[in-house]
Design a protein that fits this description.
The protein is of the alpha/beta class. It has helices at residues 16-22, 32-49, 62-71, 87-98, 116-125, 147-154, 206-214, 224-231, 242-258, 260-280, 305-314, 342-358, 367-376; strands spanning 5-6, 55-59, 79-84, 102-107, 131-135, 137-138, 143-144, 161-165, 184-188, 199-204, 284-285, 294-298, 318-319, 321-322, 331-335. A 7-stranded mixed sheet has the order 2-10-9-8-5-3-4, with helices on both faces.
């Protein structure tokens, strides 16, 4: 028998309470019972996003809301400033390209820190840019971007939107949409919201809705104005992912009960313990500004990062993630968001020590676990 531990950056672990709710007999989506569930979900999504505005709900992966952030806000020929510093920054550029939006790319080496001054420079050189599209966490590198500092710059440009892919940031660290002047904040169900994949979210500012009125790009399934209108009746435009929304009600209740500040503190400590445990083993953290959501760890010289990832999973039952694209074989990743606790980190670092020993890496057994324990003692 082998017990499995899911510590990937998505999908993540699902609490038993949420699983049980999703296992209840399915209900019809056009009746008062479902409408009462949606009404509660709407209010608690506002709590999570820290916004007074509506948060749209889609039956899709997070990429659906990313695509909608382009098609519902821009028109063909518009300019968008896109930060390309990983696989998902590249995705913003690819979505824009697919719809005839000109991209002004800010190229940053994967894992490097981002300077908000680069955004300001791009805006001064392209004052007609309609949007700045960035990640809160670049999942492929484990890097965290300075969202607040960038939003403080963009807010001074009334004809430019601040759009943030927070799929691996929402519910992990502070991202108050209204306070920070984020115009579109995108989320996904399979990360810190502790659900299976299948739901995407978009918090939309008043400024963004004005852009929506002028957008001429084609839209059908991801028609945000129609979704907004239906949500006012506690309904969705098309058939929703009913069981996922039932589970979402429970996961949002759990987040609210713990409190956002406590959630952020817990995840921050878990991430710190993961980083410190890895560094105690002589390993390096890949991102210059690491995110609490996922820690990207550089594989030791002479050892394939994919071999580490695969051994963790196959032999020791710990599912993390390998490197993607140009980082394949160079890094491996361990996530600490959502339904994660201190024992998950201890398990992950223990399994990492076993794996490294198997692969011939020289170190003193137990030092990584000891350092992680030291970080976790007050959690």
């Amino acid at each position: 028998m082998q017990k499995r531990y899911l510590l990937a950056p998505g999908p993540t672990q699902i609490p038993p309470e949420v699983l049980l709710k999703m296992a209840e007999p399915i209900i019809h989506h056009r009746n008062p019972l479902f409408e009462s569930i949606v009404a509660e979900v709407r209010e608690n999504l506002k709590y999570l996003f820290e916004t007074k505005n509506e948060v749209l709900i889609f039956a899709s992966s997070g990429t659906g809301a990313m695509e909608g952030s382009v098609t519902n806000m821009l028109s063909a020929g518009d300019k968008a400033i896109v930060v390309r510093s990983g696989k998902f920054g590249d995705r913003w550029a690819n979505i824009c390209k697919a719809y005839g939006v000109e991209t002004i790319a800010i190229e940053i080496p994967w894992g490097d820190a981002m300077d908000p001054a680069d955004i300001e420079k791009a805006l001064k050189n392209n004052p007609d840019a309609k949007g700045v599209y960035i990640q809160a966490t670049e999942t492929s590198t484990g890097a965290k971007f300075p969202v607040k500092e960038i939003a403080d710059i963009v807010k001074n440009y009334p004809d430019t939107l601040m759009v943030v892919d927070a799929i691996t940031g929402l519910g992990v660290f502070e991202l108050p949409q209204d306070k920070w002047n984020i115009d579109v904040l995108v989320g996904g169900s399979q990360k810190a919201l502790m659900l299976p994949p299948g739901l995407a979210f978009a918090g939309v500012s008043d400024k963004a809705w004005e852009f929506n009125k002028k957008s001429k790009l084609p839209k059908f399934y991801f028609n945000w104005a129609k979704e907004f209108a239906n949500l006012q009746k506690n309904q969705t435009n098309f058939t929703p992912a009913i069981s996922l929304i039932v589970g979402l009600r429970e996961s949002l209740r759990m987040i609210k009960e713990e409190g956002l500040e406590n959630v952020y503190r817990r995840i921050d400590i878990l991430a710190k313990a993961t980083r410190e445990g890895a560094m105690a083993l002589g390993l390096k953290i890949f991102a210059k500004t690491p995110s609490a959501a996922v820690t990207a760890i550089v594989a030791p010289e002479g050892i394939d990062g994919q071999a580490i990832y695969k051994s963790l999973w196959k032999k020791y039952g710990v599912t993390g993630a390998g490197g993607q694209d140009q980082l394949k074989g160079k890094i491996f990743r361990i996530a600490t968001l959502g339904y994660a606790d201190k024992y998950d980190v201890i398990t992950a670092i223990s399994a990492l020590e076993f794996t490294l020993k198997d692969l011939g890496y020289k170190f003193q057994m137990g030092v990584g676990v000891a350092k992680a324990l030291e970080c976790l003692k007050d959690l």
